[in-house]
Amino acid sequence: MVRVFGEKVKLLIVVAVVLLGVCGSGQAGAAERIGLVPVKNIKVDGLFWGKKLAVYKAGTIPHSWQYMGWDLRALKHANGIKVQGDLNGTWGEANLYKFMETCGHSLGMFADAELEKRMDEIIVLIAGAQRPDGYVHAYITNSGKPAWDRDFLDGSHDGYVLGHMIEAAVEYYANTGKKAFLDIACRAARQAYEEFLGPKGVPGFCGHAELEMALVELYRVVPDKRFLDLAKAFVEWRGQGKVKPAGPTPRAYFQDEAPLRQQKSLDGHAVRAIFFATGVADLAVETGDCDYRLASNRFWDSVTLRRMYITGSIGPRKEHEAFGEDYELPNDGYCESCGACGLADFAQRMFMLEGRAECGDVLERVLYNAILHGISLNGTTSYYQNPLSDKDNPRYNSWVCCPPNLSRTLFQVGRYAYGYSEDDIYVNLYVGGRCVVPLKRGGVELTMKTDYPWDGRVKIGVKDASAGRFSVHLRMPGWCRKAELKLNGKAVEPIPVGEKGYIILDRVWHRDDSIELNMEMPVVRIEAHPNVKSCVGKVALQRGPIVYGFEGLDNDGDVDIELGADPQFGVEHKPDMLGGITIVRGQSATGKGFTAIPFYAFANRAKSRQEVWVVQRGVKPNDRWWLGELYRPVEKVD
Ligand SMILES: [Zn+2]
């Protein structure tokens, strides 16, 4: 066995030095550009994600159609077609577009002629609702309200809706090759450009960030500089008084309290803030601008070191659905699902920007915990909020912003798993299946066999017909303390972990080379930074990437667990329980047996209390320094 755990402190110093060095010289940002593998190049199978995607394909997508009625009626009405029934409200069409993006991803993985036909029919309606100048938002057209209403930019969601439309169009094009939707999106984006940056343009921005990152995504497919310039302008106009709040809402709510370069932390409405940060990171990736890169890293540190739950949720406050102060993470906090989806995207963009394994750690944390918690195991009900401590919280069918955001995020699991640059392949998530990585020198096929996250063994096949040299980067998870690595059956010692946290295998590859990574996966007690008041004297259980918790149903209604100084844990995989989970068993300080289940599986049965953090007895407060960590194992690492 080889100890592989690297100190994050050292990593942070390296990052700081690199940032100072690169940005101080005024050069472009990240040296090597990291791209994402298209969804259609990826096949997901296996015990965990294969099963989940099958549920979402067979359950979530058919179920979602019933909530599209008022958006589709609104589009028909805007086409001049007579309809009966309610039409959508201010931001309703964003839900339709998030659902269409979900379907676009699904079509990239699962051929479905009927679904594609329905998508094409909606695209015809969107085209019919598009005004001659390119503007398309059926709610505004139908209600007679002004487009890009200058007296209501903070609340009208015009840009939010357009942003989700653009993202749906980009994905539909990527996965089907059909351009009609993409053309609609380009015309709408050019109308927005004229509105804000054209000869008669007036500065401003939509109060709900989203369009920024969507414009950068569109620019990557259709390199019209106007898209990038508009995204930059939306970011630069922050903190300049360009948007007049319609009500008493503070400017921080929509990230307008200070110019970008003076924003030190991520504040305000958590979903808006994390989408904004993602847009800034996208701009940093695309332009190489050091100010954007530095701001992205400030936002990253603000969230991941001081404002993120152990489950990856963000946004503890119900008032304004907002971030709180540093370390303000009450266990019954708000934790909107959309915030978790936003953090997954921000982590992905930060990976593209910096190539650090730590970004994959956060992505994995939020995906396996907060995001999966948001959607029920059968894929048809969801949570708007994902508190870590709760009671009698039943699953419900509130179709607001979160359900289609969860589905569009979950269908991208394959894309979150991989990245590549000119001669490098990155594996960020261990997901069973196949992937063709489009390296410049030609496609390289990776196959992955694993029962992760229940088992830490991963077998990767590298199938390259041309026997070329390139590197395979495997993320060494931050949770992993011990691992073994084999290449074509031979142990590789020590494991070559680079400064950014990846195992780097740089060599000439041959057809059917194989890598085996075996990560030990003990149950570990995790403590939070002592400034997190709600967690003082408490621990949470984690095994691999899965955060565990206690439901009353498994513990005679008692989830006020107290652990002794040296608790022993046992694990058992239960294929028939809650969709197939590994449970953790142990004994409390009083000798009473307990069962813990993954946090994400909470509240899929009858009502009962739920807790993640439990009292730790008989352990002195740890006196190790807290630097560059928000959560860490209780057990001391030599
Ligand atoms: Zn939401």
How would you explain this protein's 3D organization?
This protein has 638 residues and is an alpha+beta fold. The protein folds into 3 domains: 41-307 and 314-324 and 332-411, Glycosyltransferase, CATH 1.50.10; 420-519, Sandwich (Immunoglobulin-like); 523-633, no CATH class. Helix content is 36%, strand content 18%. It has helices spanning 8-24, 46-64, 69-78, 92-109, 113-129, 138-143, 158-176, 180-197, 211-221, 225-236, 270-287, 290-306, 337-354, 357-374, 402-410, 413-417; strands at residues 2-3, 42-44, 418-421, 424-427, 433-439, 442-450, 457-463, 469-475, 482-487, 490-491, 502-508, 513-519, 523-528, 538-543, 546-551, 562-563, 569-574, 581-587, 593-598, 610-611, 614-616, 631-633. Helix 4 runs parallel beside helix 7 (158-176), helix 9 (211-221) runs antiparallel to helix 10 and helix 14 packs across helix 15 (402-410). Residues 1-18 and 24-30 have low confidence and may be disordered. Bound molecules: zinc ion (ZN). Residues 336-338, 401-402, 405 line the site of zinc ion.
